[in-house]
Amino acid sequence: MAQTEPVTAPAVSEDFDISAREDVAKLRRGAVGLGGVLFLTLTGSAPITAMLLNTPIVVGSGEGIGTPAAFIVATIVLAVFSVGYVAMSRKKTTAGGFYAYISHGLGREIGFGAGFGSLVAYGVFEASLAGGFAYFANLKLASLGLNVGWAPLALGMVVVIGVLTYFDVSFSAKILAVGLITEVLILLLFDAMLLAKGHLYWSALNPVNAFQSFPASGKLAAGAVGVGLFFAFWSWVGFEMAPNYGEESRDPKKNIGRAMYISVLGLGAFYTLTSWASLAGYPSVKSAIASAQSDPANFFFAPSTQYAGHWVTSVMSYLIITGSFACGMAFHNTTARYAYSLGREGMLPPVLGKTHPRWQSPHIASIATSLLSLLIIGLFAIFVGTGDPSSQAYGQLYGLMAVMGVIIILSVQALVSLAIVVYFLRHHGDEVHWWRTLLAPVLAFISQGYVVYLLFENLNFLGAGSYGYAKLFGPVDLAVVLIGVGLAFYYKKFKPQTFEKVGRLINEGL
Predict the structure, then answer these.
(1) pTM for the whole thing?
(2) 130 within some domain
């Protein structure tokens, strides 16, 4: 009886190079240089938004005196994370970023789950920033005698961003550049004036204080380390978007890594200095905490008026509005590119993977991104209400939606670090480096996982009072990722050719 050879499944391709393929839509090549990538990513981190919106939360709900130290710790952790991330970006040029890297290291199923989760997280961020924008815009309009309400302002921001991001990404980069430069200049002036004239608290720079919260005292509620550290890390979310612009940047193998290091270290120094300067504007740490808890909108404005002048406060009051808008725009661009990348691979509706015939922008994915943000804002307006901007727009839409998204992003960044180690050991053993592809990613995995753990330990703190639904963030985020993993298994069984492409459309012609 003749023997037959065993039938083996075809080998799964590691990558699908799309550089020479006409049947795959591609983004505009060389649309931005190093400066453009920096503006797109730094504006995602939004220095003035991070400081004026996040610092009061870190001071009033987290570390108090240790707020600058929390930013120092976050700088160190994210710099270590960047080491492995940059090494991976030099291997794979893709618009998929996180999920493409996880796909290569930990498998397509986990990669798609992470990608689906990241897509939802970045979509949530645009809506979150719309809450911050609406909060300060509503205050500004009220001071001029106009009562518009926060919901129309938030919805209007998303609509305008949707129109602007329909075009070539270089158009977005130019708009964001103007906003970024002006907000950095005014904050540097604020720092110089406050540190020269105010009260210097040197213990605020002690990294040990990043892991110490303050107790309740009188009318002051106690702080929680996990909350403070979490919002410090939230201040950087956006810097990791640099690889998503790899296909649209000039010399991506070099410029993406440079953009990441400049973003992490530059923002770290800036955040530490500015948060320290804000504390210097108060005669005691207790008074700073009291201001952060009772009147977060004026946490920066009160000391800037006293020490830098009313005109500085006036300029900042406008720039926080434009900065929040620019930050939302940056997150919109990244969300659209995740949706575009997943659509191009066939894991989401293929129409999302189309590019505009003239602008070569992911225009359909961009429209879908706007609809997601509009839906989130609309649901908040319906179920939370519109009569209390401080609680609804700032505390919940901005603050709590940021937490929901950052849980996913930090968890996914931890997975990326683990994936980098596995990828190099499995596919490039001759290029394994003890620091870049081993120790640094392992340290990043442990440290970012620990920050997420600290937040979950303090979810009861976030869920106090009327914000009890904060306890659902963990299960909801897990459900989102598991839905992505489930979809991946579905495609693996019923559409294996589509499944093979998950995270593997790489543009090697750059």
Answers:
(1) 0.84
(2) yes
